[in-house]
Design a protein that fits this description.
Radius of gyration: 20 Å
Helix content: over 70%
Largest sheet: none
Oligomer: single chain
Shape: elongated
């Protein structure tokens, strides 16, 4: 069983990771589109570019779902470590409570 400070740090890290997830998704999608365009352009076959885009899309979707599940599991574990019953707190309320725990 983790201490309250460890649980608070874990929950704070989870909230930060949740915020960064959309930026990472946009970055991965833009890389996939650019790379697929180059594959289609240099092979002179648009089908290869489309196939690459579909393959990259599947890989991005798989990794995004996996990261979301990992973040959610970490959040649930941190909340149970803290002993909180309420899971419907907003991110700002959680952050203020967590800062009190970490500083106090």
């Amino acid at each position: 069983m983790a201490s309250k400070k460890e649980g608070a740090k874990r929950l704070l890290d989870t909230l930060d990771s949740k915020g960064k997830l959309s930026n990472r998704l946009r970055f991965a999608i833009s890389q996939a589109v650019i790379l697929s365009f180059f594959i289609g352009y240099f092979t002179e076959q648009w089908r290869f570019g489309l196939a690459a885009l579909l393959l990259f899309g599947l890989l991005i979707q798989f990794s995004f779902e996996r990261m979301k599940n990992s973040i959610e599991a970490s959040r649930i574990q941190a909340i149970s470590d803290l002993g909180w019953k309420e899971t419907s707190l907003s991110d700002e309320e959680c952050k203020t409570r967590l800062m009190k725990i970490l500083n106090g």
